[in-house]
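Reply to dn_fold:

You asked what the input looked like. This is it:
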Amino acid sequence: MNAVVEALSLLTPFDMDRPKTRIGPHSDGGYVFVDSITSDQTVLSYGIGGEYRFDTLMAENGHDVYMFDHTITGVPLANARMHWFKEGVSGTSRPGDSLFSIEDHLRRHGITGDRMILKMDVEGAEFEALGLASPETLARFEQIVVEIHDLKNLSDPGYRAAFGTMMRNLNRHFTLFHVHANNCDGPNRFHVVDGVPVSNLLELSFVKTSTVVPSPSRTLYPTVHDHPNIPQKDKLLWFFPFLPTTAPTADFLACADRIDLVYPPYPPLERKPPGPWTSGMRKIKRWLAGIASATAAK
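and this is what came back:
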């Protein structure tokens, strides 16, 4: 079985019976949610950097916003509902490094609520933080938006295991209802991993499954709710597992397996030695280059 295709199948989005809305700027820092948010929902925002327009807007709309980032010195708190802490997030707490689990953040800061909103953009720490979060902790959130990083590494077993653990933990009680490819690495930049196209950075929106009625996706991404992260052309997610299709995941896996059976991938770093035809073509190219050089000299 093609392990990369199997892993990517965990990113299959669904449609639902509720409308969507975008909160935040029409650029990097804006996120897509189910349009059911009320001002009594507390927001946990992990990964701030220099972009906190989403946080400011949520505070202005009456939400208490708890902001965590251990990599910056501070945030201008324009609203009394904004609370910033120089702390990062991890799967297990490491106080010496100013890193704490989501559960410990909720406990240490006395954060209450059982319909909270979670936003996370933490440059790779999301896999451990969400992968190791307990069902009881995740159950306190109604919606989760997260950016996942470095999908170009899906061929690496360690990365793939961490990715799979996180996605299965989320998919257990949440529905992935929106996806968007971050275009910061270029509008046409995609990676081919084990023969499969992959976008390196994805923004994912989840909602608690018990609050919606999911259905197979008929949505083409990007949508009217999406905007490029940086001012250049957005990316089309017109490939597995985002392109709407009636074909089940098993058909994609079987297709990938057929390719591997006919032409199995080479082991890492192994290359086929050039055959007679390849060597001959190289000689012809050198000969043509010599003619072009001599002609230019005349």
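The mean pLDDT is 90.
Hope that clears it up.
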